[in-house]
Design goal:
Shape: globular
Largest sheet: 6 strands, antiparallel
Order of helices and strands: HHEEHEEEE
Radius of gyration: 15 Å
Number of helices: 3
Helix content: 10-25%
Structural class: alpha+beta
Number of strands: 6
Strand content: 35-45%
Length: 150
């Protein structure tokens, strides 16, 4: 049986995420393409306000997209307590430009009791890697409320 968070997030498939629960996700305004247990894909349009002075996607924006998708993937696991990033190691491999459409992919690598390891990739639709990351997230003491109304 699918957990309630994946079910909740599935309502966004094919939609821009301006109504998402995350303010950063709202600003990034990606479109959820797919979410399954341990895997997620979101499409983003590179906007001029995401670029550096050279006119390419700013590395901080690429890292933000990757951090958002790995964090959302961990949230989707349905754990009782929230997790937060311990680290986010990014490699920036190719430029992206305003108007480019990019796909962010996240995959759970290892789920432990207190640490979850996730990898992310930001690619063109053809598969060219723009940036990739590995992140470890640690459990906090913040209990996540249920998404389902009683």
């Amino acid at each position: 049986m699918e957990n309630e968070r994946i079910s909740f997030l599935r309502q966004y498939i094919g939609k821009n995420m301006q109504q998402n629960f995350s303010p950063v996700a709202q600003w990034l305004n990606g479109k959820l393409l797919n979410i399954e247990e341990g895997m997620m894909q979101i499409e983003y349009l590179v906007r001029p306000d995401m670029c550096n002075p050279m006119g390419t996607l700013h590395g901080g924006m690429a890292a933000t997209i990757l951090d958002e998708i790995v964090g959302t993937m961990v949230f989707a696991l349905g754990r009782e307590y929230a997790f937060t990033s311990v680290n986010l190691n990014c490699d920036f491999l190719n430029p992206a430009f305003p108007g480019d459409v990019l796909i962010a992919h996240s995959n759970i690598v290892r789920v432990g009791k207190n640490i979850i390891h996730v990898e992310g990739r930001l690619t063109t639709p053809e598969g060219k890697i723009i940036a990739k990351c590995a992140s470890n997230l640690i459990q906090t003491s913040f209990q996540i409320p249920s998404l389902v109304a009683n």
